[in-house]
Amino acid sequence: MDSLWHRQCFKCKGCDEPVVDGRDYVAALDSSGRPWPLCLDCHFEEKDLRCAKCNQILRESYVEFNGMNMHRSCFMDDEELDEGDEEFDESGKEDDEELDEGSEEPNETSIDEEV
After folding, report:
1. Which UniProt keywords apply (predicted)?
2. Are 66 and 78 in contact (CB under 8 A)?
3. Could you give the CA distance from residue 86 to residue 88 in angstroms, rounded to a whole number?
4. Whole-angstrom Cα distance, residue 109 to residue 50?
5. What is the band of 22 on the pLDDT scale with cuts at 50, 70, 90?
């Protein structure tokens, strides 16, 4: 953003909190096309990308399954797997468990692909 700002005016466009070091932001455009800072919390809130199970914002990699987006941990929660027993390959496809006929295969998506 190549604009000059008063310190008190340099705020997140979503939550109106001051821009501070240690917090990540993206540039968002207002209705007139001017860039404004938008904190990542507001960015993901704006995208309304939420876990279908816990309803929390998806900020890390997530699993897409049967039209739903879920944290990996929420998706795997019902499986009661031990530490290190996650049964996904890098594509997010389950390795050993067969899926119900007509079900989609899970697909893991990185948030980096969304930003």
Report:
1. LIM domain, Metal-binding, Zinc
2. no
3. 6
4. 13
5. confident
